[in-house]
Amino acid sequence: MAPPPEPRSNQRIKFDQLFINNEFVNSVSGETYTSVNPSTEKLLAVLQQANEVDVDKAVKVARDAFEVGSPWRSLTDSARGLLLNKLADLIEENVNEIANLESLDNGKPFIQSYGQTLEAIKFVRYFAGCTDKIHGKTISSDGGVLVYTTKEPVGVVGIIIPWNYPIVLLSFKLSMALAAGCTVVVKPAEQTTLNALFLGHLIKEAGFPPGVVNILSCSGPAVGIALTHHKDVDKISFTGSTMVGKLVLEAAAKSNLKKVTLELGGKSPAVVFNDADLDLALKYISQSVFVTAGQTCFAPTRLYVQSGIYDKFVQKFIEIASKIKVGGPFEADVFQGPQIDSVFLERVLSYIEIGKKEGAKCVLGGKRHGSVGYFIEPTVFTEVTDDMTITKDEIFGPVEIIFKFDTLDEVIRRANNNKYGLAAGVFTENLNTAVQFSKAIQAGTVWVNQWANLSPQTPFSGHKMSGMGTELGIDSLDGLMNTKVTNIRLSSDE
Ligand code: NAD
């Protein structure tokens, strides 16, 4: 049972070096960079700046750890599961410290960081339970031949993650790769590295052999570029922007045709019909669009409201959004924290300006909140048209844009008119409408009368330019394994 939450804004930073071969070490160059607290703009940590030489070092030990006969490859499937369960136990024992680090690094309210750390434990335990449930097939064949398939871990996996849900993303990507029997080199986002390094310490304490997990901090793209181009990396598990996802795919093709899973950007439509439970729709949509300051890949950032309830719904939505408390992660009752850094702050503010210039009506917010910390007011636009920049692009900030629609066919056509296809949601009491919408919408996940229901056992993937490959659920382990076919001649009848 997890201990009660204990918010601490003065959490000590214990791990600030690279984690290679189960040791914390300085970068080969000796260079460092600084990490800033997005709520205070104050220095949070001085971290090691890895480069391609450190990547080579980490890939080499990960490769050694993957060799057949190594301590890692010699473990039974269930022993691998026990190690992952031990890691989950240790995350649970350190839940407060991890949640505090998450809030300091990312700025999200402590209670949300705490909840996400509990989710991380569930992800690790789920994949711990998958290690001994990986099966091949026996295939019927003509004649005296036995044909069967086995699943084998793909090899060294480069895990590259963004900064918006650091502990959640790392926990499932890491535990998926380890459950499949791979070894890994992790590249956390430069803005949120602290919990990745903290997990390195727990990996060692759990008893994972040296080289199985390696973690490299780096400001800028150098480590990501080196990993994706590396000829001895067999797979990249990437979550981030569509722009960088394309570069990852290109690097994989140019280097060694490594396998790639891409979880990318989104601009997800939420559709509310006249017959919907309005309070339910208001709750889910307002929370999901403003949580993590709008920096959620599957946030419902295009809101379509049917004409019969449009005025009433929009008025209530604005009322709810105007009451959202914005502030630092350790302040009471805060729901929305800061943008991750000054670059994203400026980027979101510039999208708001573009929206105004192109003729959308800003009916709430639209400005920076306060002068210290990268906060932006919850912002709502109406009178938005389908061809505006704010309709097409992922803004990645606390900005909702609202459209009016009349019919199901119309809203499906307009909702599909976007390059992304990550998630979508529909609010209606009519099962037929919900099923028709779900069938026609181009998205990897559809939520009906809810939003953001994710679990370790539920597959998640992006359609169109939102990604490639699937994560979560036991079947997604296929993306981390090769299938081998063995043919055995059983009788000699020639
Ligand atoms: P980003 O693409 O800029 O960076 C992601 C990671 O890639 C970082 O660790 C970064 O250092 C690294 N990177 C940068 N350049 C690289 C290169 N050339 N080669 C290899 N790696 C490189 O994304 P971000 O700004 O950190 O995160 C926000 C984006 O992530 C949004 O678009 C959001 O929708 C997306 N996201 C998607 C999901 C999903 O599941 N689909 C989940 C979370 C976030």
Can you summarize this structure?
The chain has 494 residues and is an alpha/beta fold. 36% of the residues lie in helices and 20% in strands. Helix 7 (222-229) runs parallel beside helix 8.
CATH topology of the largest domain: the name is: Aldehyde Dehydrogenase, Chain A, domain 1
What's the architecture of the largest domain in CATH terms? 3-Layer(aba) Sandwich
**Largest sheet: spatial strand order:** 14-15-16-13-12-18-19
Which value, in Å, is the CA radius of gyration? 24 Å
Q: What proportion of the residues form beta strands (DSSP E)?
A: 15-25%
Indicate the percent of residues in helices. Answer: 25-40%
* Helical run tally: 14
At the first level of CATH, what is the class of the largest domain? Alpha Beta
Task: Provide an overview of this structure.
This protein has 494 residues and is an alpha/beta fold. The protein folds into two domains: 247 residues, 3-Layer(aba) Sandwich (Aldehyde Dehydrogenase, Chain A, domain 1); 186 residues, Aldehyde Dehydrogenase, Chain A, domain 2, CATH 3.40.309. It has 14 helices and 22 strands. Strands 14-15-16-13-12-18-19 form a seven-stranded mixed sheet, with helices on both faces. The chain has a six-stranded mixed sheet with strand order 9-8-7-10-11-21, sandwiched between helices. Strands 5-6-22 form a three-stranded antiparallel sheet, with no helix packed on it. Strand 5 and strand 6 form a beta hairpin. Helix 2 crosses helix 6. The protein is globular, with a radius of gyration of 24 Å. The mean pLDDT is 97. Nicotinamide-adenine-dinucleotide (NAD) binds next to helix 7 and helix 8. Pfam families: Aldedh (PF00171). This is Aldehyde dehydrogenase, cytosolic 1-like. Keywords: Oxidoreductase. InterPro entries: Ald_DH/histidinol_DH (IPR016161), Ald_DH_C (IPR016163), Ald_DH_CS_GLU (IPR029510), Ald_DH_N (IPR016162), Aldehyde_DH_dom (IPR015590). One of its GO terms (molecular function) is oxidoreductase activity, acting on the aldehyde or oxo group of donors, NAD or NADP as acceptor.
